[in-house]
Amino acid sequence: MTYERLMEHAEDIRREAVAVTMAMVGGDPRRRAGVEREFADVPDAFRVLTGFPDPERIGVDEMDDVLCGLSMGDSADLAVPANPELARIAAVNAALDKWVGPAGERVRRGFVEPWPAFVRNQFAVGVVLRSALLAHREIWARARQDADQIAEQGLAAVGACPDCTRTEWTVTFTVVSSVAAVVAVPLGGVAALAAGGVAGVSQVVAAAGPGEGPRTSFGADDPGEVVERVREAIGLLRGHIREQRATVAGTLRQAGQLMADRPELFGWRR
Questions:
Q1: How far apart are CA 236 and CA 234, in angstroms?
Q2: Core vs surface per residue 233-263: b (16+ CB within 10 A) or e
Q3: For residue 187, pLDDT beyond 90
Q4: Is residue 194 pLDDT above 70, yes or no?
Q5: pLDDT at residue 204 above 60?
Q6: CA-to-CA distance for 54 and 48, rounded, in angstroms?
Q7: Which residue has better confidence, 76 or 14?
Q8: Which residues are paired to 172 by β-bridges?
Q9: Where along the chain do its domains lie?
Q10: What average pLDDT does range 249-265 have in this prediction?
């Protein structure tokens, strides 16, 4: 199955549920209208899962450019080489050694000496923003897979009902683990940012990749129960999506609050 054909699969479930139920009642034509009504809204149940953003259109190229511009070369990420322009601050610092007096001292203490920490802290926030984009992309990629899985498992469960045994199936909600990377970023560690611990931040983001989500088991004795379990699975998926998006939003709010509360960590004035 494919996500783009989700509504077709929903119609397949409706049609199969009607066919199996009619077979279970001996094909009694007097029951036909009632059975059709029972499953008529199955496609509507899946409609809320359509229109998910295309994850391929959520890019991070611009954030990659930002990180390359802010890189001091200590991110432990070979894909983000050091920006040689940033190394010129050392020459500026040497040239200012001959500037004596209060003005020169203010420039050295307020700008030149803390410059590396400013850049590292800005880089750390850039890592968080990039991770948020990646997590957002992963949410919708996995949400699409999970929606497809619900339809596939539901159709198979309906088809298994005539076997006269209880039908059981499992849905793995992979979307639950889609934002592991952004969750792992210790943005709240103001002290770590102030100390310029960017390598540690980047390593945590890289190491905490998405894993497998929780498995949820369902069981039913007839097509009507299968459809009810499918509705439950759809509700669970929507809830998981909301939770993961809230996690990303919370991390971004935390980043914004940190920059608003401590602009001096980034070389900004209030």
A1: 5
A2: bbebbeebbeebbebbeebbeebeebeeeee
A3: no
A4: no
A5: no
A6: 16
A7: 14
A8: 215
A9: 3-82+114-266
A10: 87
What string of H, E and C letters represents the secondary structure of the chain? CCHHHHHHHHHHHHHHHHHHHHHHCCCCHHHHHHHHHHHCCHHHHHHCCCCCCCHHHCCCHHHHHHHHHHCCCCCCCCCCCCCHHHHHHHHHHHHHHHCCCHHHHHHHHHHHCCHHHHHHHHHHHHHHHHHHHHHHHHHHHHHHHHHHHHHHHHHHHHHHHHHCCCEEEEEECHHHHCCHHHHHCCCCCHHHHHCCCHHHHHHHHHHCCCCCCCEEEEEECCHHHHHHHHHHHHHHHHHHHHHHHHHHHHHHHHHHHHHHHCHHHHCCCC
Token pair listed for 37: 């009504």
The structure tokens listed for 120 are 């590292």
Residue whose C-alpha is closest to residue 144's, from 132, 134, 152? 152
User: CA torsion sign, 30 to 34 to 39 to 43?
Assistant: positive
Q: Give the model confidence (pLDDT) of 77-128 as tens digits.
A: 656 888 888 888 777 777 777 787 888 778 877 778 888 888 888 988 888 8
First to last CA, the chain: 54
- Residue 219 corresponds to which amino acid? G
Q: How far from the centroid of its chain's Cα atoms is residue 167's Cα?
A: 32
